[in-house]
Amino acid sequence: MEHLKDKIRHVPDFPKPGILYYDITTLLRDPVGLTEVIDGLTEPFRDQQVDVVVGIESRGFILGAAVADRLRTGFVPLRKPGKLPARTIRQSYDLEYGSDALEIHDDAIDQGQRVLIVDDLLATGGTARTAVDLVKKAGGEVAGLAFLVELQFLEGRARLGNAGPLFVALQYTS
Q1: Each residue of 95-142: pLDDT tens digit?
Q2: pLDDT(27) > 80
Q3: Is 174 strand, coil or helix?
Q4: Number of Cβ atoms within 10 Å of the Cβ of 129
Q5: How many CA atoms lie within 13 A of 67 on its CB side?
Q6: What CATH number does domain 35-167 carry, 3.40.190.10, 3.40.50.2300, 3.40.50.2020, 1.10.3720.10?
Q7: Given this model, what pLDDT does residue 156 score?
Q8: Strand pairing partners for 9?
Q9: For the CA atoms of the chain, what is the radius of gyration?
Q10: Which of 36, 59, 155, 159 is the catalytic position?
Q11: Is 59 a residue of the active site?
């Protein structure tokens, strides 16, 4: 899958100076690349018990829903606060300058369901760790985590500890 790196656009100084943004929209618009990515994210979990796929706002919705379809499971969105219409469970997390949170409907995951968490990017691991904690708070068990891109130099994997089996399609070392 390494060849798919050529389909990801790098945008310097976005969303703020000093940040190099990995824009996956150029990969998503390529039908062959998109199919290969979804197949790649699905395959490691095909023979695992996965009851539901959770996608993290917002690009995790795109990838997660497609993976859920391939695994023939349901899909549940994890959203920023105030975006879900019914009663929610919230998990806060710290950012470099401030804090943020993710929410899930309180009835989205049944007790003991095995959940695959999907997102586009594993960077520092803060959002992914929050997703793991929120899935557990909602009563689920983490069946695994799947990411399109990992920025290894930010060491997000360490923050996840032994949260569950981890699959990454594309890794960047610098």
Answers
A1: 767 789 999 999 999 999 999 999 999 999 999 999 999 999 999 999
A2: yes
A3: coil
A4: 17
A5: 37
A6: 3.40.50.2020
A7: 95
A8: 23
A9: 15
A10: 59
A11: yes
Give CA–CA dist 164/154, Å, rounded. 19
Q: Name the active-site residue from 36, 96, 129, 157.
A: 96
Q: Are 54 and 69 in contact (CB under 8 A)?
A: no
How many CB atoms neighbour CB 51 within 10 A?
Answer: 17
Look up residue 52 and give its amino acid: V
Amino acid at 128: A
Tally of CB atoms within 10 A around 3: 9
Helix, strand or coil, per DSSP, at residue 130: helix
Q: What does residue 72 show for φ and ψ, rounded to 5 degrees?
A: 60, 45
Q: How confident is the model at residue 34 (pLDDT cuts 50, 70, 90)?
A: very high
Is the CB of residue 68 less than 8 Å from the CB of residue 74? Answer: yes
Handedness of CA 101, 102, 105, 111 (dihedral sign): negative
DSSP 17-62: TT-EEEETHHHHT-HHHHHHHHHHHHGGGTTS---EEEEETTHHHH
